[in-house]
Design goal:
mainly beta, seven-stranded mixed sheet, 7 strands, about 0% helix
Length: about 70
């Protein structure tokens, strides 16, 4: 299903990009690349579904994120 991958950098800079999310496997694929400058530390990552539901435990390239 289509979803939004959200990463929060340096405490408050939110980067949003489209992705595909498989709810059965919790695997995230096809994350849209976004060019940004001047950010250093990723504080949080999550998936936002079209329903507004937030998923905080998922897998990207075999790595479990939570």
């Amino acid at each position: 299903m289509k979803a939004i991958y959200v990463s929060v950098w340096d405490g408050s800079t939110e980067i949003r990009s489209s992705c595909e999310f498989n709810p059965e496997t919790k695997d995230v694929t096809n994350i849209e690349s976004v060019d940004v400058d001047g950010i250093d530390i990723c504080f949080e990552e999550f998936i936002e579904l079209p329903t507004g539901e937030i998923i905080k435990e998922f897998t990207i390239d075999g790595e479990i994120l939570q």
